[in-house]
Structure formats: C-alpha cells, structure tokens
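Would you mind giving me a polypeptide sequence along with per-residue structure tokens?
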Amino acid sequence: MQLLSIADRLSLFDVVNFGGYAAGSQGDFLRLVARQAGYPDLPIRRVPWSVLRFLGLFNGVVRELLELRYLFDGAVILNGSRLRGLLPDYRDTPIENAVRKTLESYR
C-alpha cells in the first residue's frame, strides 16, 4: 500500500525489490512454518533430485520443477535498497509474524 501512495514517482515498469527474509535453508523455513502451524515435531523430508529426474521422464510438471532446482539449492537474495530509499519509514515484518498471519488467513 505504501508503494501505491507514491506511484506517481515511479515509471510504469519500475523494479522495486523487497529484500525479504533469507532462510538458512528450505528445511529451516519449513520447520519455522511447522512450528507456527502448531506442529513443531513434524518431520521434514527431502525427495532426492534423482527421483525427481526419473519422474520427470513421465511428468511434464516435474520436468518444469527440475528447471527451478537452482531456487532450491541456493538462496535468492534480492536487493531491497531501492524500496528503502523510496520508503525510508518502511520496516520489514518479522518472518515469524508473517508466517503466523499467513497461516491464520487460511484457517
């Protein structure tokens, strides 16, 4: 909403990244979600990429997922300095609050 209030200062296709939250790993993030959902002992398991490569031989959606492997293997960190420059009073919502509110919206 804050960005919309200064839309007249932006060009039509301006890029304004949200720096966001960088989890240590997907497992760490999923454990955080499980805790916030009330399932702190929920086991987090990985499907080996080799299994997905095999399934990709028969399933196009799995093949597409494999193309996004780089997003699972490493962190994607966006530079949020432009957003902070445009909105100096902007403050990130702590990730625990964001996950809790998101889960509440589904209940």
About this structure: The mean pLDDT is 90. The CA atoms of residues 2 and 89 lie 10 Å apart. Residues 4-106 form one domain. Residues 95-106 form the longest helix (12 residues).
